[in-house]
Automatic annotation (TrEMBL):
GO biological process: DNA-templated transcription initiation
Lineage, highest ranks first: Bacteria, Pseudomonadati, Pseudomonadota, Gammaproteobacteria, Lysobacterales
Record-stated family: Belongs to the sigma-70 factor family. ECF subfamily.
Protein name, entry field: RNA polymerase sigma-70 factor (ECF subfamily)
SUPFAM superfamilies: Sigma2 domain of RNA polymerase sigma factors, Sigma3 and sigma4 domains of RNA polymerase sigma factors
Keywords: Sigma factor, Transcription, Transcription regulation
Ranges of residues in domain RNA polymerase sigma-70 region: 33-100
Pfam families found in the cross-reference section: Sigma70_r2, Sigma70_r4_2
GO MF, any single term: sigma factor activity
Native organism: Stenotrophomonas rhizophila
Ranges for domain RNA polymerase sigma factor 70 region 4 type: 129-178
């Protein structure tokens, strides 16, 4: 058995033990769950929140509070990481929906101006920082659809359900996000 497979199985077994202990009230076990899973969850939330660290941190805390309350009912039908990830994404999407009406960035091109103002050496094509900056400038719903579909692997039906939109709207937002992202990164496609 490859070492990575053994490590994954050991982590899963450890997660099971930690969930059982935390569900029984062991705060130290829950802290270990948090330390193990929060960095990856935070990275997705940070992208979904457009690089707003405070929003991402709020969503992370909300997700882990929900997890603490729901742990006794966790049935191990998926991995703990997947379950926590889903809780966190849902927390971020709830905030997105709550702020959708008042978010002027959904109009679209405000972020493009801020990216265009960066010095040329800071916008070199192909760097991950450019991609992160460009993602931050996307309108919130388009950014959420792009991240959930292209990065997280969600299906359009799942996205539509979570964002309370039609499947066709999810597809249109993905198309819009990809086009804006290409433009922001200087691609001619």
């Amino acid at each position: 058995m490859p070492a990575s497979s053994a490590t994954t199985q050991a982590d899963a077994a450890d997660d099971h033990a930690l969930v059982r202990a935390a569900a029984a009230g062991d705060v130290t076990a829950y802290e270990r769950i948090y330390r193990r899973h929060s960095p990856r969850v935070y990275a997705v939330l940070w992208r979904l929140c457009g690089g707003h660290a405070a929003r991402a941190e709020d969503a992370l805390q909300e997700a882990f509070l929900q997890a603490w309350r729901a742990l006794p009912g966790f049935r191990f039908e998926s991995s703990l990481g997947t379950w926590l990830h889903r809780l966190a994404v849902n927390a971020a999407l709830m905030e997105l929906r709550a702020n959708a009406t008042g978010d002027a960035r959904d109009a679209g091109e405000e972020g493009w101006e801020s990216l265009a103002m960066l010095p040329a050496q800071d916008r070199c094509a192909g760097t991950s920082m450019d991609l992160e900056r460009a993602l931050e400038t996307l309108p919130p719903r388009a950014r959420a659809v792009l991240i959930l579909h292209d990065i997280e692997g969600w299906k359009h039906q799942e996205i539509a359900d979570q964002l309370q939109m039609a499947v066709g709207s999810s597809k249109a937002q993905l198309h819009r996000a990809r086009g804006l992202l290409r433009a922001r990164l200087g691609e001619t496609a």
